[in-house]
Amino acid sequence: MSTPPNPQxxxxxxxxLVLDGVGVRFGGLKAVDALSFAVxxxxxxxLIGPNGAGKTTAFNLITGVYKPSEGxxxxxxxxxxxxxxxxxxxxxxxRTFQTIRLFxxxxxxxxxxxxxxxxxxxxWWQGLLATPAQRREERxxxxxxxxxxxxxxxxxxxxxxxxxxPYGVQRRVELARxxxxxxxxxxxxxPAAGLNDQESAELNRTILEVRxxxxxxxxxxxxxxxxxxxxxxIVCINFGRKIAExxxxxxxxxxxxxxxxxxxxxxDEEAA
Length: 272
Description:
The protein has helices at residues 55-62, 85-90, 108-113, 124-129, 132-151, 167-179, 197-212, 224-230, 248-252, 255-262, 267-271; strands at residues 15-26, 29-40, 44-48, 70-75, 78-79, 93-95, 185-189, 216-220, 233-238, 241-246. It is α/β, with parallel strands linked by helices. The strands form 2 sheets. Strands 6-7-8-3-9-10 form a 6-stranded mixed β-sheet, with helices on both faces.
């Protein structure tokens, strides 16, 4: 299966996210080293590499969890290198995590509504008093959540406790919570982890639908079937450094990528 064509690929993609020589050290360890790449508007970019390559660290640099020791991070033309995570979220960068972080014991609807906290305009005291303005806003937000759940084929589960749902469905609920925040860039950290083949196929379809709505996606994923089927562009890193960049087909056959994942035979073994 090849990646369906990006309807916006005919024209050069506007650069939404740019990493320019970004690096970070933890003691004597350089976890990310002079990393540079870009994510265009309505583009799915895969960030791949072996375990410990620095992929999640790169995510944490983009979202403000870590501050770079060197280099710059720009988003939609703005330098966000030193910004705090909440400020970065406010301009439209949202992420999911390797491990599911849902509110157990709460419904699907409640979990997704929690993703709208940055978009609410009413003050806390208006919620306590249930003012007319607060009630109107809550009705509008709930209507929007139900519409999103319908698009993600989760509407029939709106009032189910997330703890009772299969793992793959919980992953989709987490994705819905990120999407309801109206991201301009969605960062997905191993979204296919623990999914079966059917659930992975559903994830592929959802990611492509997100891209086709004009949202940029940066994806870390170990499942190469997912990566090769949904990405427009791939960046491969190893030991914190970029070793290859290109289309899925170029990366699939790149000798440095193959060596990073499979290792290189010793000369003695080759001679034998």
